[in-house]
Write a structure and sequence with these properties.
Elements (H helix, E strand, L loop, with lengths): L10 H4 L9 H11 L2 E4 L5 H11 E3 L11 E3 L19 E4 L11 E8 L3 E2 L2 E5 H11 L1 H6 L6 E3 L5 E3 L2 E3 L5 E3 L7 E3 L7 H9 L2 E4 L6 E5 L3 E5 L2 E2 L3 E9 L32
Antiparallel strand pairs: 1-14, 2-17, 3-17, 4-15, 5-14, 5-17, 6-16, 7-13, 7-15, 8-9, 8-12, 10-11
Length: about 270
């Protein structure tokens, strides 16, 4: 269940970039490299969303997407109870990254509100760097377990064996997560899931999008969630890889230097059951 008391309503203003300002693309790229998140306004039509997305990323098609590769996120009335399809219902979505069950999830997510909900439908964002730092400070055993190779399986039969935190060769950390019925966990990770969820809840920031507003974020760093809603809430989403240099994941707190890097064997880790 989402902790809707967490976070701050000032997030939108703090990360806002004016799309029509000089050198806006360069400013957006620099902010994504620094913080992984940009908030936006003034995208009111599908054509505007597509044009902006195409400027910033090579758009990746999605199974639920339209021919232009944008996905309309709304309550279809048909998908809510199918595993992996909760985003197309009106219920709560737990914090997650997009396409976690694929070998290489897209780096960027653009989500733009066309029509807000009558009630609810608030977005909650959590910076993976903050989540990881909380775990390192409060429950280092959990942080270590969650970076063990092959300690999670995300997706259905064609999913991907992975881990929540992947420590790259250069020491940066990338993040992937899902918390629905298509997540399977190694026995060494299972006891640490409450600590992970607590760290996410205390790191979340509230974001209530109005028509024309949206955000662009690093999908290897930020988690996003949603409260349940009523009404005809409609958003457009684009996924893809940046048209500019973007280092992988985030630079961790220095105390994470001893964590296992990607590919290093961990004798106590056991692959999760599928």
């Amino acid at each position: 269940m989402l902790d809707t008391s967490a976070g701050s309503e000032t997030l939108f203003a703090d990360r806002y970039v004016n799309l029509r300002a000089p050198h806006a693309n360069d400013v957006i790229a620099a902010q994504l490299r620094e913080t992984g998140l940009v908030t936006l306004n003034g995208l009111t039509t599908r054509q505007e969303v597509l044009a902006f997305a195409s400027r910033m990323m090579a758009i990746t098609p999605h199974p639920h997407g339209a021919p232009d590769s944008l996905t309309l996120i709304h309550d279809t009335g048909n998908h809510a109870h199918r595993a992996g399809f909760a985003g197309l219902g009106s219920g709560e979505l737990q914090a997650h990254t997009e396409r976690s069950g694929t070998p290489t999830p897209p780096r960027l997510i653009l989500l733009v509100c066309l029509q807000p909900a009558t009630a609810g439908g608030e977005t909650f964002l959590a910076d993976g760097r903050e989540v990881h730092a909380r775990l390192m400070g409060e429950n280092r055993d959990a942080a270590v377990a969650l970076c063990q190779p092959r300690s999670a399986y995300f997706g259905a039969g064609t999913g991907h064996t992975t881990q929540v935190f992947t420590v790259q060769a250069d020491g940066r950390i990338s993040l992937r997560l899902r918390q629905d019925g298509l997540a399977r966990w190694s026995p060494i990770v299972q006891p640490h899931l409450p600590a992970l969820r607590s760290a996410i809840a205390t790191s979340q920031h509230r974001l209530l999008l109005h028509a024309g507003q949206g955000y662009l974020l690093d999908n290897h760093r930020w988690l996003h969630a949603r409260t349940r809603f009523t009404g005809d809430r409609r958003l457009l989403r684009a996924l893809g890889d940046p048209r500019f240099a973007l280092p992988g994941g985030f630079a961790p707190h220095p105390t994470t230097a001893a964590l296992p890097k990607a590919g290093e064997p961990v004798s106590s880790a056991r692959a999760p059951r599928r």
